[in-house]
Amino acid sequence: MGEFGEKGAPCGTICLKYLLFTFNCCFWLAGLAVMAVGIWTLALKSDYISLLASGTYLATAYILVVAGIVVMVTGVLGCCATFKERRNLLRLYFILLLLIFLLEIIAGVLAYVYYQQLSAELKANLKDTLSKRYRQPGHEGVTSATDKLQQEFHCCGSNNSQDWRDSEWILSGEAGDRVVPDSCCKTVVAGCGRRDHASNIYKVEGGCITRLETFIREHLRIIGAVGIGIACVQVFGMIFTCCLYKSLKLEHY
């Protein structure tokens, strides 16, 4: 224990210790959740990153992973600082809380800003990306992401199937007599992209831009909500830490 045990400690100090301990247990679990959201984004939801011109979406996920790891380490440190009643550990704990708070606010703000810019970015870049990089050497990630996008969201082309007429892959003759990729087809078989009739391929209003925008917006809302939500909870942790710090006597060495 620290300089004074619970027998000699004021009731307020004891309450603060247990409040802060409870907070740290919840905080550790929150860190696990934050890290899980970041890893989920990178591992399972990153297929379409190669179709985006900006790296903001990826950056927010990395920030959440780093913040989650630091949160979990900080939670353990907070428990030690609380029950050992060490003011120097409490100072370090408060600094780490502040650092995590800033990281999560940054992730939340980035998600919000990118949320506002997403529509303009997709309209400006997606058609060009599909036209110039699909089935081109060195752009296998774009090809894979495009095929998955069209099959998963039942769409064809950035705005509509006519966009594929400007594709370098189609114009080069490498597509054979296809007019759209086979991934546009409702039932994918080799060479099915030769017919672009509505009975054969997906034709949806707004094309793949609308579907991809909706998908990313929904995920950005999750990232932003997690980042800002956990950051707000941390304010209570910083308040409890300051109160406990002031209630403890200075340590003697």
TrEMBL record:
Keywords: Cell membrane, Glycoprotein, Lipoprotein, Membrane, Palmitate, Transmembrane, Transmembrane helix, Ubl conjugation. Signal peptide: none annotated. Interacts with integrins ITGA3:ITGB1, ITGA5:ITGB1, ITGA3:ITGB1 and ITGA6:ITGB4 and with CD9 and CD181. Interacts (via the second extracellular domain) with integrin ITGAV:ITGB3. Interacts with ITGA3; this interaction modulates ITGA3 glycosylation pattern. Interacts with F11R. Interacts with RAC1 and CDC42; these interactions mediate physical association of RAC1 and CDC42 with integrin adhesion receptor complexes. It is a multi-pass membrane protein. It holds the Pfam family Tetraspanin. It is found in: Cell membrane; Membrane. The chain crosses the membrane at residues 21-43, 55-80, 92-115, 222-245. It comes from the Eukaryota. It comes from Sus scrofa (Pig). Gene3D superfamilies: Tetraspanin. This is Tetraspanin. PROSITE patterns: TM4_1. Its main location: membrane. Belongs to the tetraspanin (TM4SF) family. GO terms for biological process: cell migration. GO terms for cellular component: plasma membrane.
